[in-house]
Amino acid sequence: MSMDQAALMAALQSVIDPNTGKDFVSTKLLKNLRAQGASVSFDVTLGYPARSQIAPIRQMLEDAALSVPGVQQATANVDFKIIAHSVQRGVPLLPGVKNMIAVASGKGGVGKSTTAANLALALAAEGARVGMLDADIYGPSQPTMMGVHGSPEHDGQAMQPLIGHGVQVNSIGLMVKQGQAMIWRGPMVTQALDQLMRQTAWHDVDYLIVDMPPGTGDVQLSISQRAPVTGAVIVTTPQDIALMDARRGIAMFEKVGVPILGVVENMAVYRCTQCGHEEHIFGAGGGQRMAEEYKVDYLGGLPLSLSIREQADSGCPTVAAAPDSAEAATYRAIARRIAVKVAEQAKDYSSRFPTITVSNT
Ligand SMILES: Nc1ncnc2c1ncn2[C@@H]1O[C@H](COP(=O)(O)OP(=O)(O)OP(=O)(O)O)[C@@H](O)[C@H]1O
């Protein structure tokens, strides 16, 4: 029995990627469909890091093809490729970095650095090449959280990032003495961060996570204007005051044309380690309500958890220390949502155009 090509396409189109909610045919991700006798094969390239997703997606696609009368053999070649997506107009990309994701918060102490570290590890666990730029001048904690020691080597041109849990790390905390940066004035901070960003030899990074200084002052505004940011993630806790500050964070990025990838609610609920009872100490649903009000995505919530704190503060964040825990699964789900949202953004075309230098001579 010969196969009906239209039926094959319809069957393949009925398969929905659970991560994007879209099919692979109308999004043109399915390519090179070959049919020979009773065999079909095709390629699917996902736009987000998907090591754990390849096998189930391959299975769904092959099952769909095999359900078509006349198809006896189906081979789906599924892989992923992360490309550079657009940033603010007129801001050039950093060499060696495809996408920069700013992790920000309206106020300090909400768990921004912990979230940034775990998201970096979650993206890396799915096969992405990840960098971590710790720009938190007021409390650079990434060297501790990512477990890196020493200073980056400088070859006269650029600094070599340190490697922690497979992630390329550089931090303002590795460049200055403890406490020194806090007394710098705004322009000095901006200059130091600019240098840190541009003079680090990032090696073919798919996602550079930037742990931003907390707040929405001049330094933060300047980074969000000058750095090529693909999108921003806002971390908040559920208290009204933190939510109010988070709103300011959203407004700051929107003002400079950086898309908000979504909101992460940290320390959303307390779960008793003895009996499992859950208590919304700071009120329930605040992050979600704020996300709805501001029409941004609610990416997920993390509980107030002793293990999250202990693991991050001891240099092995939860995603690496306890990959089978519920908290690690939440971080991975949030990271996947972020990567999918980045993949949906327009491609960066700036590298296609030559830079025009006007010379007066
Ligand atoms: N979900 C959580 N449960 C328990 N403790 C947490 C959680 N998230 C973060 N912490 C802890 O709270 C403290 C502050 O977290 P973190 O440094 O990530 O916050 P931050 O917002 O980056 O702060 P800063 O304003 O200093 O940049 C750390 O000790 C961290 O381990």
UniProtKB/TrEMBL annotation:
<keyword id="KW-0547">Nucleotide-binding</keyword>
<dbReference type="InterPro" id="IPR000808">
    <property type="entry name" value="Mrp-like_CS"/>
</dbReference>
<comment type="subunit">
    <text>Homodimer.</text>
</comment>
<comment type="similarity">
    <text>Belongs to the Mrp/NBP35 ATP-binding proteins family.</text>
</comment>
<keyword id="KW-0378">Hydrolase</keyword>
<dbReference type="GO" id="GO:0051539">
    <property type="term" value="F:4 iron, 4 sulfur cluster binding"/>
</dbReference>
<dbReference type="Pfam" id="PF01883">
    <property type="entry name" value="FeS_assembly_P"/>
</dbReference>
<keyword id="KW-0411">Iron-sulfur</keyword>
<keyword id="KW-0408">Iron</keyword>
<dbReference type="InterPro" id="IPR019591">
    <property type="entry name" value="Mrp/NBP35_ATP-bd"/>
</dbReference>
<dbReference type="GO" id="GO:0140663">
    <property type="term" value="F:ATP-dependent FeS chaperone activity"/>
</dbReference>
<dbReference type="GO" id="GO:0016887">
    <property type="term" value="F:ATP hydrolysis activity"/>
</dbReference>
<dbReference type="InterPro" id="IPR044304">
    <property type="entry name" value="NUBPL-like"/>
</dbReference>
<dbReference type="GO" id="GO:0016226">
    <property type="term" value="P:iron-sulfur cluster assembly"/>
</dbReference>
<comment type="similarity">
    <text>In the C-terminal section; belongs to the Mrp/NBP35 ATP-binding proteins family.</text>
</comment>
<feature type="domain" description="MIP18 family-like">
    <location>
        <begin position="6"/>
        <end position="76"/>
    </location>
</feature>
<dbReference type="InterPro" id="IPR033756">
    <property type="entry name" value="YlxH/NBP35"/>
</dbReference>
<dbReference type="Pfam" id="PF10609">
    <property type="entry name" value="ParA"/>
</dbReference>
<dbReference type="GO" id="GO:0046872">
    <property type="term" value="F:metal ion binding"/>
</dbReference>
<keyword id="KW-0479">Metal-binding</keyword>
<dbReference type="InterPro" id="IPR027417">
    <property type="entry name" value="P-loop_NTPase"/>
</dbReference>
<keyword id="KW-0067">ATP-binding</keyword>
<dbReference type="InterPro" id="IPR002744">
    <property type="entry name" value="MIP18-like"/>
</dbReference>
<feature type="binding site">
    <location>
        <begin position="106"/>
        <end position="113"/>
    </location>
    <ligand>
        <name>ATP</name>
    </ligand>
</feature>
<dbReference type="GO" id="GO:0005829">
    <property type="term" value="C:cytosol"/>
</dbReference>
<dbReference type="GO" id="GO:0005524">
    <property type="term" value="F:ATP binding"/>
</dbReference>
<comment type="function">
    <text>Binds and transfers iron-sulfur (Fe-S) clusters to target apoproteins. Can hydrolyze ATP.</text>
</comment>
<protein>
    <recommendedName>
        <fullName>Iron-sulfur cluster carrier protein</fullName>
    </recommendedName>
</protein>
<dbReference type="InterPro" id="IPR034904">
    <property type="entry name" value="FSCA_dom_sf"/>
</dbReference>
